[in-house]
Amino acid sequence: MSAISIRNVTKRYGRGATAVQVIHGVSAEIESGEFIVIVGPSGCGKSTLLRMVAGLEEISGGEIAIKDKVVNNIEPADRDIAMVFQNYALYPHMSVFDNMAYGLKIRKLPKAEIRARVDKAAAILELGPYLKRRPRELSGGQRQRVAMGRAIVRQPAVFLFDEPLSNLDAKLRAQTRLEIQKLHRELGITSLFVTHDQVEAMTLAQRMLVLNAGRIEQIGTPEFVYARPATTFVASFIGSPPMNLIAGRADGTRFEVGGLALELPHAAPRAGDLILGLRPEHGGRDVAHEDAPGSSGWPMQVDTVEMLGAERLVHGTIGGAAFTLRVDSTLLAPRPGMQLLLRPAPDHLHWFDPQTKARIE
Question: CA-CA distance, 296 to 287, in Å (whole number)?
């Protein structure tokens, strides 16, 4: 039994000829206990989809079911969900304990049970020393943990996270990601997590749902989506820096880019116009300088070099097409104006149709 079923769901704003559709027939099955990340750029509809699951947005078409019960016309309070928002949404005049306990008090649970639930959640989130404090006396990361604690005490069937880390600085985001992973391991509650940050998606998701302009581009594990992107959008959105995408014309083992013929390690999947994809880290283990004796490969003209500690990002062009290469910082640093020779491995080449933008196997 799926914990959440999203079946051909659509969302429109307005009516008639002026209606604007923002979600276009989205379908997905989320299994019990899964941690699913909905990832995509700003404005792609990911928060709208989450809010429809929560009951905060009306569904224009299709069905959403939670534990096999269709919830289209069920109030949010009756959906057995708990939501964590980007802006914490804490009551400033209440203590941490009262913020976490408020929903349970509204439901008129016994005081002893409320105390037990809050204490348990506080122990999981390491909030015990802060239960008497008010939100203004806490850091941003602590406030977000209080918001998560408020969701935990409800013991819902589903957790919904709407970009909960967006207001935190980089260090706190990394720490809170670890806390969310630990929380899911301990509680095992089905979770939907919305983010525009592909690093968050890659590190948190058991499966990720990549959304673009209100449509699903791909669903899969982070490893699968990264290794075998279904479209050029996924290839360019997942990964930092993103996959290099080079438009050209293939003929057997030759790929022509801007008048430059690149020798392929194996024949292209078909002749004609294609888009070739290559991750920055897959330029080849034996990248050579043009003046190295007996060297051959794809010529990359170096424009700029970024030093990032353990690695360098080398930006340049191949046949006039922009290209980024990731290299180990222990290697001899390329210089702007230099030409490198790349020799990518056959299993690291990706091919896409220039019309449909879909992957070609």
Answer: 10
State how many domains the chain has: 2
User: What is the span of the domain harbouring residue 66?
Assistant: 2-234
Environment class of residue 328 by beta-carbon count within 10 Å: exposed (0-12), middle (13-18) or buried (19+)? exposed
Residues 55 and 204 in one domain: yes
Boundary of a domain, candidates 234, 262, 288: 234
**CA nearest neighbour of 246 among 270, 275, 269, 281:** 275
CA 197 to each of CA 48, 176, 247: distance values in angstroms, whole numbers, following the listed order: 17, 14, 27
Please check whether residues 199 and 261 belong to one and the same domain.
no
As a whole number of angstroms, the distance between CA 296 and CA 300 comes to 11
CATH code: domain of residue 73: 3.40.50.300
Chunked mean pLDDT (size 10), the chain, 361 residues: 92 89 96 96 95 95 94 93 87 94 92 94 90 92 89 91 86 85 90 93 96 97 97 95 96 94 94 97 68 72 92 94 92 88 92 97 88
pTM comes to 0.89
Place of tokens 């392929």: 264
Nearest to 2 by CA among 101, 89, 71: 71
If asked whether residues 204 and 297 sit together in one domain, one would say no
- Do 302 and 336 touch, CB atoms closer than 8 A? yes
- Residue 72 and residue 99 share a domain: yes
